DNA sequence: AGTAAAGTGTGACTTTTATCACACCTCAAA
DNA sequence: TTTGAGGTGTGATAAAAGTCACACTTTACT
């Protein structure tokens, strides 16, 4: 655990940009940075939610137990608040956050965070904006994922990784086949077959975990038509 | 359009309970109540989002165009803010809200609402709480709906209607078969067959739109196991 | 380097659900 | 009271995706 230096932190959230020096000092003394390795659980479903988790650097999967196994709800890349809904709305975490690569997390005391909301309108407004933006994206993904069939669902997450997460046509898959199936709500085998098919058709190429999107246009078409 | 009397309104949201008399006066002069009939569109996907819509009384479906037709995201019963995410996070509505029964909506000027967030910490906190609670419920439903197969999905929404919306084992279905299929992401025919099956098995009984849950225990079991 | 554990690739078969087709019901407006 | 539009019920068939089985590959650890 490093001693935090929130005042000079260059990974501040948009909301934290609105904090005064005095408030940043309060943050410093009520905040702890912890570093997680790939695969480490940051907070776990069913345990007490006592802090706000802020993802300063890294990549995280948010997932929960569904009726038929694990369900990945979303991937989050830094910077982002990880568990606001589960921390504010329930004493107990409703979902788990797991690091997909080495990640730095700041745990902020809930009281301090709440205090900022009460006393700093700009901070509160940014938090609300953030929650709203996330909900909108969730709705979009929900509508898409629930109506598309497998090729479209797989195409969508590949494009999402390429556009939002890595901003490149070539990237290392952060999820294995089984996790991919948890994300698109399918079976490990079906996802695997789908990736094979995309490869055979020359839409993507894979070398170990290294994935390259060769025909983004086709992938886009498959994603759109479902 | 009735002239609003927010100060003495008995349908205030938890957040609005924290508004001062002065703020309630400001609300009164920046707010309009409009009454919608069953089937009326309250705000529509693709149009400009200019106000916060507060559902004072009634029942509303929130839905959006998906790749394979309409997708119902959630049913909302009064009291509730209808379109915060879409109003705050985007200039254009990302989804449509349609009245399922006669409903009273207050349209609140976005500037006024934003002002409350900036200046009244308790108000802001209640709004954040509300957003978080909704997101948590959405995640839960998302994980369930994406992993269960049809019997479980239909069982789940019937139980949801019974428990959350109508608080009774007997209620009038607010959706027709086609809308039900938009909600559970299936086809009209499959949903219809599923309801027939539940009837044949004595789990529910239907008389026109009037639905009675006869074996809640069985329905619960079907919903749980997927 | 050797070994166990985790992950991948693929065929055969089964289950679930969509689609198509069509008859029938219900209710409101002419 | 007709008429027609929207909604419902159900069979037959086809398509999609899950499951099972098993071999192979990669990774991580000692």
Largest sheet descriptor of chain A: 4 strands, antiparallel
Shape of chain A: elongated
Class by alpha and beta content of chain A: alpha+beta
Summed up, the helix count of chain A is: 8
Question: In angstroms, what is the radius of gyration of chain A?
Answer: 19 Å
Biggest interface, chains and residues, is: A-B, 49 and 49 residues
CATH topology of the largest domain in chain A: Jelly Rolls
For the record, give the distance between the C-alpha atoms at the N and C termini of chain A, rounded to a whole number: 46 Å
CATH architecture field of the largest domain in chain A: Sandwich
Proportion of residues in helical segments of chain A: 40-55%
Based on DSSP secondary structure assignment, what is the total number of beta strands of chain A? 11
Q: Total domains of chain A, how many?
A: 2
Strand line-up of the largest beta sheet of chain A: 1-8-3-6
**What oligomeric state do the depicted chains represent?**
homodimer
Flag low-confidence runs of chain A: none
Mean pLDDT over the full residue set of chain A: 95
Polypeptide structure, described:
2 copies of one chain form a homodimer. Chain A is an alpha+beta fold and 226 residues long. The first copy, chain A, folds into 2 domains: 6-143, Jelly Rolls; 148-225, Winged helix-like DNA-binding domain superfamily/Winged helix DNA-binding domain (Arc Repressor Mutant, subunit A), CATH 1.10.10.10. In chain A, 44% of the residues lie in helices and 25% in strands. The first copy, chain A, has a 4-stranded antiparallel beta sheet. The longest helix of chain A is centred in the middle third of the chain and has 27 residues, at 121-147. The mean pLDDT of chain A is 95. At the A-B interface, strand 4, strand 5, helix 2, helix 3 and helix 4 of A face strand 4, strand 5, helix 2, helix 3 and helix 4 of B. The first copy, chain A, binds a DNA duplex (30 and 30 nucleotides) through residues 149-150, 176-178, 186-190, 192-193, 196, 208.
């Amino acid at each position: 655990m490093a001693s935090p230096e929130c005042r000079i932190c260059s990974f501040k959230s948009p909301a934290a940009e609105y904090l005064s020096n005095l408030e940043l000092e309060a943050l410093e003394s009520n905040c702890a940075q912890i570093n997680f390795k790939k695969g480490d659980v940051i907070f776990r479903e069913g345990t007490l939610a006592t802090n706000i988790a802020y993802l300063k650097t890294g990549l995280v999967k948010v997932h929960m137990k569904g009726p038929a196994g694990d369900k990945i709800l979303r991937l989050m890349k830094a910077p982002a608040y990880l568990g606001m809904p589960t921390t504010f709305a329930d004493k107990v975490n409703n979902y788990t956050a797991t690091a997909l690569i080495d990640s730095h997390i700041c745990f902020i005391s809930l009281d301090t965070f709440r205090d900022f909301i009460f006393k700093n309108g700009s901070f509160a407004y940014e938090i609300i904006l953030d929650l709203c933006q996330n909900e909108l994206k969730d709705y979009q993904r929900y509508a898409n994922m629930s109506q598309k069939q497998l090729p479209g669902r797989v195409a969508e997450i590949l494009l999402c990784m390429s556009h939002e997460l890595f901003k490149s046509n070539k990237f290392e898959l952060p999820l294995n086949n089984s996790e991919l199936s948890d994300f698109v709500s399918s079976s490990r085998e079906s996802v695997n077959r789908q990736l094979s098919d995309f490869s055979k058709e020359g839409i993507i190429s894979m070398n170990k975990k290294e994935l390259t999107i060769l025909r983004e246009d086709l992938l886009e078409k498959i994603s759109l038509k479902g």
